[in-house]
TrEMBL record:
It comes from the Bacteria. Residues 65-179, 215-298, 377-480 form the Plastocyanin-like domain. InterPro entries: Cu-oxidase-like_N (IPR011707), Cu-oxidase_2nd (IPR001117), Cu-oxidase_C (IPR011706), Cu-oxidase_fam (IPR045087), Cu_oxidase_CS (IPR033138), Cu_oxidase_Cu_BS (IPR002355), Cupredoxin (IPR008972). Coiled coil: none annotated. Keywords: Copper, Membrane, Metal-binding, Oxidoreductase, Transmembrane, Transmembrane helix. CDD domains: CuRO_1_2dMco_1, CuRO_D2_2dMcoN_like. It comes from Pontibacillus chungwhensis BH030062. The keyword Transcription does not apply. SUPFAM superfamilies: Cupredoxins. This is Multicopper oxidase.
């Protein structure tokens, strides 16, 4: 079963944070967290929410609770679930629906729901200590917002994410378009687990780091996890999908894990959307690389082949998606399709935020991503040589054009996710992209630099963090701070909030 990494807000780390905060106050600088509680401007809870007038209302009840979850006939984990399953209930609505989700907490720990990739009012973002107080055991909270951007999204707890998402608190959130070209539409949530509880530990990860790196940016997850799942299952326990031979389908892939995953198609596929945005692509590919937190939709025609989640390390088996029409499923060794590898940055978005690379940004922020060692905490993951809540925030005014340069000078992958906005990726390693793409998450691999732009058009306090939540838990988080608003919520200081 997956084990928690100790949050940087507690233990010996709290002493370090206090010392850093004191020193920063002395020299006049401000941390991300301190800016949230300045009593000037408007509280984020007083910002206008979405208007449900004239929209169909879809209501869902979600209960967080514990369950012994059977991954296959031989392996089980003590999971934390939404509605007693891993993944939780798929929430599927139509474009233009007004969504109400009533969360009840039957766990003995606080939880929330964050709507990953959904652009919504700040107070509905589900980040404890930033946009709400965590929902305590026995308590309830209702999220409501307008689903006006069709695409593939997902929901997960943002309370102690490194543990709670790892233990199964996630599910798919699908906003269907008014019209669809596919009679078949299936969602697959990819994840990795540590069945051997001794395998997943921060101590093991630290010894692996000092002992040497694999060089591919995935050394930590390869050392920590030993079992792959699709929709919470693997092997013969995975439910088959009913796609007849010759039939085409829309397949939605969500990476809920902390490892970059590769999906192999023996029949070729075509990428049609990334992070909820349609892309322009006529290429047929045979492999799909999906970063943690990323969503990629493909068009796939069943021509007698198969789809498999590939192992990235020794001791971990591939997971193949079974088809209910067994006569169409090839058996034995299958020839790999001749197509190449597609990723989340392979194709241009059909609708861009900016027609050309913007000039003269109002705010420029250089985000250096690295890791280090801190006394009492061991390994930490840093933004500009600081760990949250002392990371420098991205301070903006409403309407600002914001440029962020993300540079990975460390040895591990960092899938960086921005809440409440979408950004346009315009360059990689200093070279302008021929195919700019609109996303909410970009996987920055070791040695890579990306330049992204976004418009500060959704007032609030928003996280920008690594979606390998083990990295976020140990510091790789900052905040997009709108100067005209503040958060009335707090992290630590006797609260149960631990984002």
């Amino acid at each position: 079963m997956k084990k928690i990494t100790i949050p940087i807000l507690f233990g010996a780390g709290i002493i370090l944070i206090g010392m850093w905060a004191f020193l920063k106050f002395q020299d006049g600088s401000e941390s991300a967290a301190s800016l949230l509680n300045e009593a000037e401007g408007k509280s984020i809870v007083d910002l206008k929410g979405d208007d449900q007038t004239g929209h169909p209302v879809k209501t869902f009840d979600i209960t967080a609770s514990e369950k012994q979850w059977q991954i296959n006939q031989d392996k089980s984990v003590q999971a934390w679930t939404y509605n007693q399953s891993v993944p939780g209930q798929e929430i599927r609505v139509q474009e233009g629906d007004y969504v109400k989700v009533h969360l009840k907490n039957d766990l003995d720990v606080p939880v929330t729901i964050h709507w990953h990739g959904v652009v919504l009012p700040n107070k509905m973002d589900g980040v404890p200590g930033i946009t709400q107080d965590a929902v305590l055991p026995g308590e309830e909270f209702t999220y409501e917002f307008l689903a006006d951007n069709p695409g593939t999204y997902w929901y997960h707890s943002h309370q102690h994410s490194s543990k709670q998402v790892d233990k199964g608190l996630y599910g798919a959130f699908i906003v269907e378009e008014d019209q669809t070209n596919y009679s078949q539409d299936h969602t697959f949530i990819l994840d990795e687990w540590a069945i051997n509880s001794e395998k997943q530990s921060i101590t093991n990860m630290g010894s692996m780091m000092t002992g040497g790196m694999s060089g591919d940016g995935e050394a930590d997850t390869k050392a920590m996890y030993d079992t792959l799942t699709i929709n919470g299952k693997n092997g013969s326990s995975l439910s088959p999908i009913d796609i007849k031979e010759g039939e085409s389908a829309r397949l939605r892939f969500v990476n809920a894990g902390y490892q970059t995953h590769v999906v192999q198609f023996t029949d070729q596929m075509r990428v049609i959307a990334v992070d909820g945005e349609d892309v322009t692509s006529n290429e047929q590919q045979s492999k799909l690389e999906i970063a943690p937190g990323e969503r990629i939709d493909v068009e796939w025609k069943n021509e007698g082949g198969s789809i498999s989640l590939l192992s990235q390390s020794e001791g971990t088996n591939d997971v193949t998606i079974p088809l209910s029409d067994e006569g169409s499923q090839m058996t034995g060794e299958q020839e790999e399709s001749s197509g190449g590898l597609a990723s989340g940055t392979s194709y241009e978005s059909k609708e861009l935020l900016f027609d050309k690379t913007p000039e003269n940004p109002d705010v420029t922020y250089e985000m250096n991503l690295n890791m280090g060692m801190n006394m009492g905490e061991g390994m930490v993951f840093q933004i500009n040589e600081d760990t949250f809540p002392d990371t420098p925030p991205i301070q903006v005014e409403e309407g600002d054009l914001v440029k962020v340069e993300l540079k990975n000078t460390g040895m591990l992958n960092h899938p960086m996710h921005l809440h409440g906005h979408r950004f346009q990726v315009v360059s990689k390693n200093g070279k302008k992209l021929n195919n700019p793409i609109v996303k909410d998450l970009i996987n920055v691999k070791p040695g890579e630099t990306y330049e992204v732009y976004f418009k500060a058009n959704n007032k609030g306090e928003w996280l920008f963090h690594c979606h390998d939540n083990n990295h976020a838990d140990r510091g790789m988080v900052t905040i997009v701070d709108y100067k005209s608003v503040y958060s009335p919520f707090e992290i630590g200081r006797g609260t149960k909030n631990a984002p």
